């Protein structure tokens, strides 16, 4: 079961009130959305954006749009939000049940697409990209010290079809397995570019007094979010990123890398 991270802090900084409207740009299992809907009774609404067509959720006062948040302004053209939330982490469903190769703990096809309409898969990158292209992805998106060594081993051991095949190649190359998997996932879904494009749209469509909350899970994401808030016209509500308490870490260890930043539109 997916446990949404930083639940109390999300409610604190979004500050939802009865009958207000919100956008959850990363709906996933709807954990944060359920909390927001509870606070916005009786007539408050949430517009939930979910890119993965395999995730289905239905709740009263929830409007679900199957699309990417990179199209936020177009999606919300008739929706005036009092707050917007981005939870940039993967859901537990993607890791444990999707069968798309997001986890190196299960032997699965190397897909890694959030949306199956996307033509690019991790398998395609590994088996058709040049050594230099793969090295660049691992170095820039995974911050992998042994990027060139891993890329060379990948090219020499093609075709690579499954997560366990890739895992074994990374082990031999002395690299960090999670870094390569992160890098491929980011590349497949163009995650960093999408974040950079979506955040200014969020600022633009927020109602006056509206709040923007963003939760990131690794340094590349957080750097983009931090720079956005710094250069935006929003009043920053978090001088330093908010992290999980020791109590939350005991209940939900996956919340450890989460960092929350927030701002308000004046």
Alpha carbon gap, first and last residue: 38 Å
**Alpha-carbon Rg, integer:** 19 Å
Count of alpha and pi helical runs: 12
Work out the helicity level: 40-55%
Strand order of the largest sheet: 3-2-1-4-5-7-6
Notes on the structure:
The structure is a single chain. This protein is an alpha/beta fold and 266 residues long. The chain folds into 2 domains: 7-87 and 191-264, Vaccinia Virus protein VP39 (Rossmann fold, 3-Layer(aba) Sandwich), CATH 3.40.50.150; 100-189, Putative methyltransferase TM0872, insert domain (DNA polymerase, domain 1, Orthogonal Bundle). The chain is 42% helix and 12% strand. It is built from 12 helices and 7 strands. The chain has a 7-stranded mixed β-sheet with strand order 3-2-1-4-5-7-6, sandwiched between helices. The radius of gyration is 19 Å and the shape is elongated. The two termini are 38 Å apart. The mean pLDDT is 95.
């Amino acid at each position: 079961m997916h446990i949404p991270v930083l639940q109390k802090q999300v409610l604190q900084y979004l500050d939802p009130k009865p009958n207000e409207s919100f956008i959850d740009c990363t709906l996933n299992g709807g954990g944060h959305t359920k909390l927001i809907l509870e606070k916005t009774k009786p007539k408050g609404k949430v517009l939930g954006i979910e890119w993965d067509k395999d995730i289905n959720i239905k709740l009263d006062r929830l409007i679900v749009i199957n699309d990417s948040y990179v199209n936020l302004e177009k999606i919300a053209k008739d929706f005036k939000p009092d707050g917007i939330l981005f939870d940039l982490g993967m859901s537990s469903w993607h890791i444990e049940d999707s069968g798309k190769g997001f986890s190196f703990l299960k032997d699965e096809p190397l897909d890694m697409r959030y949306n199956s309409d996307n033509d690019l898969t991790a398998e395609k990158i590994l088996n058709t990209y040049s050594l230099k292209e793969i090295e660049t992805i691992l170095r820039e998106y995974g911050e992998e010290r042994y990027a060139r060594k891993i890329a060379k081993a990948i090219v020499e051991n093609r075709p690579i079809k499954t997560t366990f095949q890739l895992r074994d190649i990374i082990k031999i190359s002395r690299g960090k397995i999670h870094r390569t998997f992160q890098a491929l996932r980011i590349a497949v879904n163009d995650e960093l570019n999408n974040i950079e494009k979506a955040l200014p749209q969020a600022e633009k469509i927020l109602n006056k007094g509206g709040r923007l909350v963003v939760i990131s899970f690794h340094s590349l994401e957080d750097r983009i979010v931090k720079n956005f808030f710094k250069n935006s016209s929003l009043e920053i509500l978090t001088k330093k990123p908010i992290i999980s308490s020791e109590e939350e870490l005991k209940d939900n260890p996956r919340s450890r890398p989460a960092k929350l930043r927030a701002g308000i539109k004046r």
